[in-house]
Amino acid sequence: MSVEGPELEALTHHLAQCPAEFLAPPRLAKGGKIQVAAVVSDLLCLLQGCLLPGRALKGFDGGDRHARNRLRLVLVACWLLSHNWFRGRRALAKPALTLLATGLTELAELVQAERCVTEPERREELVRRCLQALGLRPARETEAQAEDRLTTLDSVEQQRLVRETLAAERRTREVREAMRRKAAQAAAAKVSRE
């Protein structure tokens, strides 16, 4: 995130205006409307001005029903990256493809795609995740500020912290229970000796 990118407000506003078509069901093995690979291809043409070979778009051509939200999130991210600021910036094409192919999977497991359009914090989270994946930070923010704000909003990180906290609490309960059993055994042993 060492390179200053576009203004955060401009991108969150652009994302809030995401057309309903980008939230339509992606074409999967059975049903759906939107060919995600075609949308990704169009975006990459906006960024670098040329077509990609079909094999580069293999991961966007469908999948099972579990892929639906990830592909919908890819469509929303394509809308975000179609903002005028990104157009013609060839250096962003490769990281954008990586972001779209693999960088949204964890978020898609936790957050429904439409929330990244309708909810201000999820919009900002998606914008910041995309900028980070492209090696950019919002205009007029330092790297530290950008990292801190993303950490604050990061749904994946929050979920990880919740899991770690629950695991630590479980371990604490187990240790307390073991200590209670050991104390009870010691008390019983003391009574039997007397």
Please supply descriptive tags for the structure shown above:
single chain, 194 residues, mainly alpha, 2 domains, two-stranded parallel ribbon, 2 strands
Set down the secondary structure blueprint:
Blueprint: E1 3-4, H1 8-16, H2 36-48, H3 68-81, H4 93-103, H5 105-110, H6 115-118, H7 120-133, E2 136-137, H8 143-153, H9 155-193
Parallel strand pairs: 1-2
Summarize the structure.
With 194 residues, the protein is mainly α. It has helices at 8-16, 36-48, 68-81, 93-103, 105-110, 115-118, 120-133, 143-153, 155-193; strands spanning 3-4, 136-137. The chain has 2 domains: 3-153, no CATH class; 165-194.
Textual characterization of the structure:
With 194 residues, the chain is mainly α. The chain has nine helices and two strands. The protein has two domains: 3-153, no CATH class; 165-194.
Q: What's the alpha carbon Rg, rounded to whole Å? A: 23 Å
Secondary-structure element series: EHHHHHHHEHH
- Compute the number of strand runs: 2
Structurally, how many domains make up the residues?
2
Q: Give helix % range.
A: 55-70%
Task: Give the terminus-to-terminus CA distance.
Answer: 70 Å
Low-pLDDT stretches are none
Note the main sheet: 2 strands, parallel
- The shape is elongated
The helix/strand class is mainly alpha
Strand order of the largest sheet: 1-2
Strand content: under 5%
Mean pLDDT across the residues is 88
Oligomer: single chain
- What is the tally of helical segments? 9
